[in-house]
Amino acid sequence: MTMTAASHDKTAAKRFAALVSGYRPLPNVPDEFIGPDGVPREHWVKFFHALSELGGDEIDRRFATADRNIRDTGVSYRAYGDTSERAWPLSHLPLLIESDEWRAIAAGVTQRARLLEAVVGDIYGPADLVRNGDLPAAAVTGCTDYLPQLEGLRPPGDNFLFLYAADIGRGPDGNWWVIGDRTQAPSGAGYALANRIVQSRAFPALYRDMNVNRLAPFFQAFRDGLIGAAAHADPRICLLTPGPYNETYFEQAYLARYLGFLLVEGGDLTMRDNEINVRTIAGLKRADVIWRRIDSDYADPLELNARSRLGVPGLVDALRAGGVVMANALGAGVLEAPVMMSFMPRLCRRVLGEDLLMSNVATWWCGQPRERERVLAQPEGMAIAGAFGNSVLGRPANQAVVGASLTAEEKQKLVSEIERRGIDFVGQEVVNLSTTPVWEDGKLVPRPFVLRIYAARTRDGWTVMPGGFCRISGRPDARAVSMGEGVRSADVWVLSQGPVQHVTLLPTDETVRIRRVMGHLPSRAADNLFWLGRYLERAEATLRLIRCLAGRLIDTDTLGNTRSAIERIVRLFVAWGTVPAKASSEVMQLAATGLHSNKEFGSALALVRDAHRAASFIRERLSTDTWRLIEQLRSELDRDEDASLTEAEAHERANAALQTMAAIAGLAQENMIRGAGWHFLRMGRRIERAINTCRFARHFGHPEAPVEELDILLDLIDSTITYRSRYMMGIALGPVRDMAVLDPFNPRSVAFQVEKLNGHISQLPVLAEDGMLEAPRRIALQIGADVATTVADKLDINRILTFENALLSLAEAIAARYFLQGPHVARADTASGLA
């Protein structure tokens, strides 16, 4: 060994020692890094050696890169009760699992998926397990997720579960235990994928050298399994979401985009002739498979929960008729009840003829006398949970209480409730979760975690994701972990013994049918794209007014001449709701309000928030760059409206926001596929720009308008330079009006917007092939003809107002034809052929 190599080895050893020397597992708690014999596990040693070689500064830089990637890509979630999204809390270190241990985990999860599939099939089918006494009837019927309306309903292929998840943790014996089953609508798989993408980009060499198994084959197999379950070739698969205010909406949109599924809400679907159809701008289109992320009880307000606004009326009838495949089947959530865990060992032997490969937490249901007496004999040594997910001692639902932590009064109350109605409670062994290393304040510390493992039904049986969704507690003594305050999520690296082949979801089969469009656009998506365009254009008009106002105040030489023009701008602010009706006389305070007000519905901030909300409803259809710019625009305007603001600062802020908006428009123009979605986005901007230009022309191009106000009009339509190069004699009313309204060569004129609107509308599908013009097309052609045939010297305020009202009618006609539900659904039925 050369001196240089020896020196390098010593340096690497010092760095490794410095990194791990202070790490100490918690007393009497199993740890992933340090084995029960006190010796670090080999795969962790390899990982930390490679990490330490980067050096402290480089490690910090890589962590910062991961955090920035999370922000830039908009990975987010909502904690229960949150009104706004939070940035995804990524733990900087992955959880490592070596291959031999992983094989045992995968075998246990696969067996459990097979078992639960058989149990739920029996519950809603022959009920032999209840009849033979293996599963008490009360343990089933007492569960709120048991749906008796579905008894006897057999899904296509008798497949109830398509995606199963098991929450597991390492028990005190060093083995992995199942803590909970997730069969209703398992979440977290999309976040596991997002974690992987972020970590692999932050540490590409380390990720490669550790031979980490890829996640793409699992998602590919899951997608192929859903395709294979459909009754038709080339099926339409929908991901049914509760909507953008759900805690995990980002994940749902992320998975829909990654897998190529159609993200829909209940209002997007309707039942016709025992089939579920998607309401699209081209009429009703059949949905073949629905991957639901709503609870079963909310799926059909006609037969299940009548208060639901998330489901589809008639869905259960469609399921009975075999008109759609549901993943997972309605009613599958019955398996998640903690009471079920007390019977799993017995059920596994009865149903599969096997012992559980992976034990679950020991559970005793208090609905049985002997088990109830055992729990009452030592409540302080158990965790008490609701047998059916119900609340215990007023705690949140699905949250267990540890008997030893209760006061004497609480303990007595709990004992009394168990004695009175034991059926509602289970006692469970108190589990001390194992710990994994996390990075805190520049050092490694142990923190408890829960690992969620996923199994997907495929054409060849069950397959398990080689990774998972890991939640790490911020407290060293946590027993259960949910995505709340102080909780982080880690990527899970399942290590292979050799190099791993690179796999993606991109198809390689040369027989794949070529497509150049993404399919039919749902009406809801078209609606939100249209309004995204309108809100952005409204915000742009407001920002242009603010920039114009600040610019006039900066130009002190002409301030006296523009006082009346400034007053007109302020009046327009009041009319648009940009500032309050009883506005401050301080002009710069008005500018600050117009930019940053949280109260006024027409402020630039409020309009951008409206645009952000519309964008959040269609996040799966927007590029990462577009979403990032919309987030950036919102953050630029989200400032204190009461802070003092100079004319230059107002001008600069408005200008910066306008530049960001120009970038958003540029992305849509240059990068967005020219499908129906692009047409609706552009129609929203065009129609709003035309309406605003009419208002500008009426407000600043009135018959008595002085030069200063005409100059403002040219500024607002970004045509000052063009006008001055075209007309040498100075600013005059007629030419300015013509440039703003009638000039078809001016990209800011009304005529230009109407011409483009006609082009967009002509590209949209029609419902009936009878040769008759639909209302939007007819109105747009009429406006175009009226604008084109208007003579400049006959253009007056009344004529401009006529154009403005016609444009408003066009917007209403577009909404009535493409967006509205209710009575307009009947028109969609006339679409030729349900594809």
Task: Supply the number of helical segments.
Answer: 29
Mean pLDDT: 89
Unreliable stretches, pLDDT < 50, 5 or more residues?
A: 821-835
What coarse outline follows from CA principal-axis ratios?
A: globular
Strand content: 5-15%
Query: Radius of gyration, Cα only, in angstroms?
Result: 32 Å
**How is the main sheet built?**
7 strands, antiparallel
Terminal Cα span: 71 Å
Structural class: alpha+beta
Number of β-strand runs: 22
Q: Helix share of residues?
A: 40-55%
Overview of the molecule:
Residues 94-472 form the Circularly permuted ATP-grasp type domain. Residues 521-819 form the DUF403 domain. It holds the Pfam family CP_ATPgrasp_2. InterPro entries: ATP-dep_Glu-Cys_Ligase-2 (IPR051680), CP_ATPgrasp_2 (IPR025841), DUF403 (IPR007296). This is Putative circularly permuted ATP-grasp superfamily protein. There is one protein chain. This protein has 835 residues and is an alpha+beta fold. Among the domains are: 3-87, no CATH class; 362-429, Dna Ligase, domain 1, CATH 3.30.1490; 525-672, no CATH class; 673-818, no CATH class. It is built from 29 helices and 22 strands. The strands form 6 sheets. Strands 4, 5, 17, 18, 19, 20 and 21 form a 7-stranded antiparallel β-sheet that branches. A 4-stranded parallel β-sheet has the order 7-6-11-12, with helices on one face. Strand 1 (76-77) and strand 2 (86-87) form a beta hairpin. The longest helix has 32 residues, at 523-554. The protein starts with a helix and ends in a 7-residue tail after the last helix.
